[in-house]
From TrEMBL, chains A, B:
This is Aspartate aminotransferase family protein. Its cofactor is pyridoxal 5'-phosphate. One of its GO terms (molecular function) is aromatic-L-amino-acid decarboxylase activity. The keyword DNA damage does not apply. PANTHER family: GROUP II PYRIDOXAL-5-PHOSPHATE DECARBOXYLASE, MIP05841P. One of its GO terms (cellular component) is cytoplasm. It comes from Actinomarinicola tropica. It holds the Pfam family Pyridoxal_deC. Keywords: Aminotransferase, Decarboxylase, Lyase, Pyridoxal phosphate, Transferase. Belongs to the group II decarboxylase family. It comes from the Bacteria. One of its GO terms (biological process) is carboxylic acid metabolic process. The modification N6-(pyridoxal phosphate)lysine is found at residue 293.
Length: 481, 481
């Protein structure tokens, strides 16, 4: 593709994306695709000859779009936010256009230095403890996901506790409500299932400190080594918050590495009034959050911070000859390949830098604060409505509730809303009971969308008919030229 | 950012990227940045108020660009190719614009189905064995990197051999020239260092079958379990090719999982005459290659194929309640989160789909074939020039050579070329000796760039002065508005 073609097609695609984002609220939120629909519309073999870009873009509209669940819709309340934004999309475009490999400082110094720098900015932005800054023994890195961040934290902890040779007696801890990625990290790292202890949760879905204490005492008495504990700030299911400070005070004397998973809730720290989410972080070894969830940055972008980067680097560094270079040998630079599992890495700091500069601290504060207000307003309505029960106070952006009439009714209501295409919700279970989750954090979600969701829920609860939202024709306009 | 602003800034950025790629050959290939230069040009704290996009783009030109080593330059011959292209950049833009999470089929069916479909296309395109197609027990997935592909292959193999509980007696094999990611995968997975046996290489840098046999026999005799073997097709150092078929024939009877790492060389299969790179693949359990290296697709995009997807899924699947859904429960669909370490995933199939449709099989064949011709032509010159020695025949895109006058001279010549900014080479060591590598695979590299490289090497060898290429002023034009 010549630069001129890239200009031409690029302009068209930018318009397409802008049109898409402008109109995404008109789509049924969840795709109506059945398994196999998308594949059935695609030719069985790759093309022999080149195809025009316009043909590809037509297929995006006719084949791909019907198979998309619109995470960027203002009516998307399912799972967790994945709130992209203009500056982030443009940062991703620039990253693809520069096409550099940031595996070593030497392979493109700006790729590493901008990342370190922006991650120091984020320490300011969220009010994180200084131990996570890069000018001391700690520092930050962008991982692809919170799952990978948790994995490398486990690997660093294992290294500090003696490495693979000493694994047999190591035990780790996380609550029953911790994200499945903690168990996955243990599995990947080669631990037996029983080496990750599941700590009970209290009535707020938070880790029970007394149970953690009992488990640690048992393990220590049996000669096992408590090498890792994960506390979650903002569990996926219900946004529960584990008592980070108390967990750290309990386990740090045992030499335990404390990791905090704030994948979903960490972004709240941009609002000074919400900085209680950072309580105790000055005692922990690592902490991560996902700008690709709630900080207007498209996937993938997880920020992982460690208090002591040497454990991480020692756990993951293997230097083949072809990557040796003067700057690395001199120890003057950071080589982020030693902070992650993959070797290669793209220039992900650009999108986070673009986002922070576009919004500024004030803008981010405004939007995150607004989401929390919307969630709290929604929760207040749930609370006083006899048809529903609030399952947990909405402290941040997630509202967990259920139908007063029981699980079947909760499930029926959720499915009715989702089937209408006018909003999308997801669910979890608390004490075996079905709980509807409304996660309010998409970039363009406003009061009127939350109002509409509330109306929909009421209609579904009352058994009133809901007019479905249908796939609009010829949309987005850019797709039609 | 409003859709209108996104349009406006997006057009400007597309022009910027097109200008950049049009003129990237005018830049000194390697950045001249010293450690700390980039950071010193950035403000110490994040902005409080929003900043205009133009200011950000100005800083990209003045702060970021000088810190970039230009992997997209036609004069980039270092490390390995990372050859992006227009369609791939646009695919990445679309992926960012749609902003979907493809962790489950249900969270955006098109994201999963297009991936499965395009990976079946790639089986055709490269002439891979049918066992890798998704309509049988096998199938393909996009991982972020070959490193991650090798890791999940190790995890699947470990699962098949009895899982973590049986790890103690497991042993794996890879040659001394295998990529460092194999050792990293073993470390991550919790194996002791001695559980990955290093197999000697022959005079072609390929795995020595007799040594592998000896090691396997020793291990079996000692009651150890040969659970994994990695053969490399196209080693990073010298593009050496391990005898895949013979390796498989030797170890498969022991129940060993055979993984083939063709990260760099796998793309050669688009050219029918080069399909010897696929020899023996019908006997192996998994195979991966990097479209982000040599198939015009920007990082990250590694294609991993397995002959039996169940081992992979069983090794990695953990299903929390909030991700349960009817389609997954019915077993009708693929949930790619169970094929990788991270939970989240973006819509990476788009860029590969765009690339294949833009080039068509013929176009890809043409470009890959052209790179191989360029490399072979270059090697032929090296071979007859008394100042240089060819270290290995150039079968694919990499030429390995050295100065006849010895290591110091090789190193001096390489540094002289690199310091000129007119080309970038990297090195490895073979039998302790310094070897210069010229990897010829960038999208826009043509005969004249290879000719210029040859001129430069001659000048450096003869000690003639080389006029350095300087950072052009006010470039790319788009950056100046
Ligand atoms: C608390 C928590 N941790 C981890 C994750 C995993 O996120 P990622 O896709 O970044 O790995 C999630 C996402 O659901 C989460 O909510
Ligand atoms: C043969 C081989 N395997 C694996 C890798 C690692 O690549 P990735 O960055 O995709 O993990 C490389 C890259 O240098 C390679 O050449």
């Amino acid at each position: 593709m010549t630069p001129d073609d890239l200009r031409r097609h690029g302009h068209r695609l930018v318009d397409w994306v802008a049109d898409y984002l402008e109109g995404v609220g008109d789509y049924p939120v969840a795709s109506r695709s059945a398994p196999g629909d998308v594949r059935a519309a695609l030719p069985p073999h790759p093309p022999t000859s080149p195809e025009p870009f316009d043909a590809v873009l037509d297929d995006v509209a006719s084949v791909v779009l019907p198979g998309i669940t619109h995470w960027q819709s203002p009516d998307f309340f399912a799972y967790f936010p994945a709130n992209a934004s203009g500056p982030s999309i443009l940062g991703e475009l620039l990253s693809a256009g520069l096409g550099v490999q940031g595996m070593l400082w030497a392979t493109s110094p700006a790729c590493t230095e901008l990342e370190t720098h922006v991650l120091d900015w984020v320490v300011d932005l969220l009010g994180l403890p200084d131990r996570f800054r890069s000018d001391g023994p700690g520092g930050g890195v962008i991982e692809d996901s919170a799952s990978s961040a948790t994995l490398v934290a486990v690997l660093a902890a294992r290294h500090r506790a003696g490495g693979a040779a000493a694994m047999g007696e190591m035990v780790g801890y996380a609550s029953a409500e911790a994200h499945s990625s903690v168990r996955k990290a243990f599995t990947v790292a080669g631990f037996r299932d029983d080496q990750l202890r599941v700590v009970d949760v209290d009535e707020h879905q938070a880790l029970r400190l007394d149970h953690l204490r009992t488990l640690v005492e048992e393990d220590v008495a049996a000669g096992r080594r408590p090498f890792f504990a994960c506390a979650t700030v903002g569990t996926t299911g219900t946004m529960a918050v584990d008592p980070v400070r108390a967990v750290a005070e309990l386990v740090v004397p045992h030499g335990t590495w404390v990791h905090v998973d704030a994948a979903m809730a960490g972004a709240a720290g941009v609002v000074p009034e919400l900085r209680w989410v950072n309580d105790g972080l000055e005692l922990v070894d690592s902490w991560c959050f996902d700008p690709h969830k709630w900080l207007f940055t498209n996937f993938d972008c997880d920020c992982l911070y460690v208090a002591d980067r040497s454990a991480l680097v020692e756990a993951l560094s293997i230097v083949p000859e072809y990557l040796r270079n003067a700057a690395s040998d001199a120890g003057d630079v950071i080589d982020y390949r030693d902070w992650q599992v993959p070797l290669g890495r793209r220039f992900r700091a650009l999108k986070l830098w673009f986002v922070i500069r576009h919004y500024g601290a004030e803008g981010l504060r405004h939007h995150i604060g607004r989401h929390v207000e919307l969630a709290q307003g929604f929760a207040a309505r749930v609370e006083v409505d006899p048809r529903f029960e609030l399952v947990r106070p909405a402290e941040l952006s997630l509202v967990c509730f259920r139908a007063a009439a029981g699980d079947d009714e909760s499930e029926r209501i959720m499915h009715a809303v989702n089937a209408s295409g006018r909003a999308l919700l997801s669910h979890t279970r608390v004490d075996e009971r079905f709980v509807i989750r409304a996660s309010i954090g998409q970039t363009t979600t406003e009061q009127r969308h939350v109002d509409a969701l509330w109306e929909l829920l009421g209609a579904a609860a009352d058994g009133r008919p809901i007019e479905p939202r249908l796939q609009p024709d010829g949309f987005p306009p850019g797709a039609r030229g």
